[in-house]
Write a structure and sequence with these properties.
binds S-adenosylmethionine, 5-stranded mixed sheet, 3 domains, Methyltransferase, Cobalt-precorrin-4 Transmethylase, Domain 2, 273 residues, elongated
Length: 273
């Protein structure tokens, strides 16, 4: 009889953050497909689980499918990643979709994920959010993505690495100005930190204290007032900046960043076109 593919979340730091059901499934399945068998072995040893392991990671996720489907033909398989929920910025998507396409049962278990842990602790609105995964590494691609999200009203949630955090916060300030944001670092671990502030205060904080560990960056969505940039308001903001001595080019860039308008359209208003 064909088995079931269980998607099993594992802790994101604190080994206690695993459900009773997840432990039972890991014990009962005939095979665990793990992103990194060494990492998963530490977890299994902690809970005295001796189920066989096989690797399933970014670089073998296509070639490994046949072996996993052979195992599913004979029994149940659990999919785990290094930490948190498989398939969320982690390997799993291809295996899950292929399993569904083959008509094999997929059973996801609820459990640890850095996204929700960070979101509920951030203090930012939780009624709607947009998960962005890891932001692009290239500055232009990152700036374009952030700019496209300027009018987004839901909370933005992204994974970020510690060595890019300050650079990303600078890009966030450039686009979103001083919106509320939160940096959630080392969740569930000894040095857990929630830094709540704005891009500028976070830049100051993380320049003085270079961040380590794992990070989720959360940015408030567009505030209702911010979403209402009509032509009158754009003209007024442009006039204000030019009265302060900014060139039309620079003022148009700043107002475009604040309002979400296209810079060319703002510039055209400034020339009276
Ligand atoms: N599948 C995982 C999940 O469900 O959370 C995410 C895997 S992704 C490869 C790893 C990224 O998640 C890290 O670089 C970091 O941005 C975030 N992350 C994972 N654990 C975290 C933690 N304990 N604290 C903060 N961020 C974490």
């Amino acid at each position: 009889m064909t088995g079931t593919l269980y998607i099993v979340p594992t802790p994101i730091g604190n080994l206690e953050d695993i459900t009773l059901r997840a432990l039972r499934i890991l014990r009962e399945v005939s095979l665990i497909a793990a992103e990194d068998t060494r990492t998963t072995r530490v977890l299994l040893q902690h809970y005295e689980i001796t189920t066989p392991l096989t690797s399933y990671h970014e670089h073998n996720k296509l070639t490994k499918l046949d072996a996993i489907f052979d195992a599913l033909a004979a029994g149940d398989v659990a999919l785990v990643s290094d930490a948190g929920t498989p398939g969320i910025s982690d390997p799993g998507y291809e295996l899950i979709t292929e399993t569904i396409q083959r008509g094999i049962r997929v059973e996801p278990l609820p459990g640890a994920s850095a996204i929700l842990t960070a979101l509920v602790g951030s203090g930012l609105p939780t009624d709607g959010f947009v998960y962005l995964g890891f932001l692009p590494k290239k500055a232009k691609a990152r700036a374009d993505l952030l700019h496209d999200l300027l009018q987004e009203r839901r909370t933005l949630v992204a994974y970020e690495s510690p060595n890019r955090l300050v650079e990303t916060l600078e890009a966030v300030r450039e686009t979103f100005d001083e919106r509320p944001l939160c940096v959630a670092r080392e969740l569930t671990k000894l040095y857990e930190e929630f830094f709540r502030g704005t891009a500028s205060t976070a830049i100051d904080h993380y320049t003085a204290n270079p961040p380590r560990g794992e990070i989720v960056l959360l940015i408030s969505g567009a505030l209702p007032d911010e979403a209402a940039w009509d032509e009158v308001r754009v003209r007024a903001a442009l006039a204000d900046l030019m009265a302060q001595g900014e060139s039309l080019n620079r003022a148009a860039k700043i107002v475009a960043g604040q309002s979400g308008w296209n810079k060319r359209d703002v510039y055209a208003l400034g020339t009276g076109a």
